[in-house]
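**Fold in tokens:**
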Amino acid sequence: MNLIYESMTEKYCNEVIDIFNYYIENSFAAYFESKLPYQFFNKFLEITKGYPAYVLIDDKSKKVIGFCFLKAYSPLPVFKETAEITYFIEKSETGKGIGKKVLNLLQSEGKKIGIQHILASISSHNNQSLNFHKNNGFSECGRLHNVGKKNKKSFDVVWMEKSI
């Protein structure tokens, strides 16, 4: 599959929030319990200002099939070389190598702005993401036990890191 990477702008608000809402309602990949309104998209734009943020478009169908971004790990200047990564791909498109392509893109774009370390915050119930990150050079660097509860089910937050 060939992908087109477009800057994440208001033009893609509905598609991005629809994909994110799927994961909110059907998984532990997103830390919200109920669907978000389209206005939440503005929060994505706010937290990604100055960082790479893209929508993923299938070149053939021209359909938005995901989104990805880096954001500041912390607003403090001493952490300016560290970013947190986020990506969500339409469920029907997972397992096709898209995540690897997106990770490579964000690593490359992150290096251009001085990022040297990438962190991922992952629910302990999200085995697909934990395995993906492990298989792509991330290692577990911390675990917060039972700090989250979604749909009455407790989970750990697993922090993974990678130097780029």
In short: The two ends are 26 Å apart (CA to CA). The chain is about 25% helix and 35% strand.
